[in-house]
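Recap slide: Acetate kinase, sequence and predicted structure.
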Amino acid sequence: MKVLVINAGSSSLKYQLIDMTSEDVIAKGNCERIGIGGLITHKLADGTTIQEEADFPTHTEAFVKLVELLTTGDKAVVTDLSEIAAVGHRIVQGGKYFSESVLATDEVIDRIESISDLAPLHNPAHVQAIRACQKVFPAGTPQVVVFDTAFHQTMPPKAYMYGLPYEYYEKYQVRKYGFHGTSHRFVTARLAELIGGVEGKKVVTCHLGNGSSIAAVDNGKCVDTTMGFTPLDGLVMGTRSGAVDPSVILYIMKHENLTPDEMSNILNKQSGFLGMSGVTSDSRDLIKASEEGSERSQETIDKFRYQIRKYIGSYAAAMGGLDAVVFTGGIGENSDELRHDVCTNMEVLGIHFDDAKNVELNRHEGKISKDDSKVQVWIIPTNEELLIARDTKHIVEGMK
């Protein structure tokens, strides 16, 4: 079975075609500048890269182009679209309605669209991609939707409710939803394979990248996470502020005479690593700037790592124990320095960190705690696209 995985943004459409027999990626790429021009970058398993400018007024034209590259020319990987058994879509926000992946029926598509206010930059684009796929693929090609928020739907009210008038929860569904759930679920499942199950285990999963979140996973179920109503909450990130006293936002808006949209732009695109350091939103460049003497860059690094330690400790307290910590995401998998700074001097939680393994296994899967460590520490590379493909395969096979 071949599954096409789609991750649509407002002006982009990333994709991977995966052979589910071997779980190998056959081809992948990205359609960019949708609505403002068009560029597609298409990569094959043999290393071949094709890049072409195109005209993408909507997501439909982007789908037509990616289908052309998949099916025609001497670099075609399928002879006909009928060879693609199903399409799986990443959906950022499922609200309170979806706790698992489902088939994309008309009712489901309408529901995703109805909660676009909760993710105005993402959900409308996801719906456009699903409908574009319906136009381009043969009638009856099943589509499956996989929600970033689904894994976090097991959080109890004490974790997801805010201390606001209850009417805002009832009227506008204002609550913590959490994001990166597909990644947190993937690494939790992989940890279970590595240690013989997570039943009865208390785990903290750290997805660290340009966007970062941490989840408390008890007995395989999420019980809390750092991101909230939107992906803005929690850790300081590449350009996102993370958690901020709400009064600070009101204070700045008043003194700078800012509109809500202007303040949102500051919090989402001008803050985080970029805003604090004044240098960059990229963690690698942040480290370089620090080494060259930038005190603000070092303060930003210190804050990010301090927050990670703090959340690991608080989630251990909330769950009443800790059995494992997992690092994943671009920074989590690739920065041995960060993992060292976070995990050393954590004996109070039962972590005995192995520096040698940490360096040796950088960028690779493996345990980086000592054998006598009460709490295991792991690097587990995430693969959200594969999880989406697996869910899609499972649901489609269940239809037979």
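The chain has two domains: 2-147, 196-384.
The first helix runs from residue 59 to 71.
(End of recap.)
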